[in-house]
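Q: Sequence in, structure out?
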Amino acid sequence: MTKTRWIAVAAAVAVLAVGGVAYGVAAGGEGTAASSSTTTTSTVRPSTTTTEAPTTTSSTTSTSSTIPLDDGVLQRGGKGPAVAALQRRLTELHLDPGPADGAFGLATFYAVEGFQKLAGMGADGRVGPEVAAALANPPAVTPLVPNGGATRVEVDLKRQLLFLYKDGKIRLISHVSTGSGKKYCVNGDCNNTAITPVGSFRFAWRYTGWRESRLGKLYNPVYFTSSGVAVHGALSVPTYPASHGCVRIPMHIAEYFPSLVDRGDPVYVTDGRPVGPPSTVPTGPAPTDPPTTPGDDTAPSTTTTTTTQPPSTTTTSTTPSTLIP
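A: Exactly. Output:
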């Protein structure tokens, strides 16, 4: 879709908002100001077949069912051509809303949240006139580590976003949830803090399907530290940091994310501070996370407090041995 055509779509959404009519239905979504002790879980069963990464274009399968709204927004549960146009635009901007089928589901909800974070907006997964206007004139994507290599992953802890570059070009932008910063207990040890380590790393091991770590369940994990920190799919990916230290990504993206990265590809995790060159690929055996059934990224024996800790200030470019996923 050309920029001119999208501007026309954005203008149409704005007109619909003024007239109090838009495509969609009201549905609950995960907001930005949620308590760190409460996580909304959306169950998404993984596909049993291999899912390929979406390309920058997508086919259109518009539904004929449209439902008027009082507040003039596109939101989760909505259906129709306006939703399909939104999905195509998000795909053009390297976010993944799923197929452009005109159905505003969880994948589209997460993609909208990712765009809202990118644009510096409150992430509520709803598309009104302001978000539609931003989609017509999106912010430029500025590399966090411009000299980090042609193929790399950047994790922005401040904005809770992941950027994947392939051959020097942005390939994927994904909404994520990283370490919560809270103290937690596991196996009787309460001297743990949920931190995603800041620094420069490289992808090492990976597993296919669901795995059970000592802190919870991971889907298609790709590990980048010897202590088990990974990018992995999760049933719950809230807008705020909520993990024990891993980088949670939406399930539909976790289906193909491992196919986009190779062993040895650099991973840069930053909270705005400069990071050094990546360390060598972690060696030794892979984390001993056995196969398991689908479930939440929360271990039954794990408890947390509400004490929030600041991010680590000492990890810069080495693979830590004491940080926990």
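The first strand starts at residue 152 and ends at 156.
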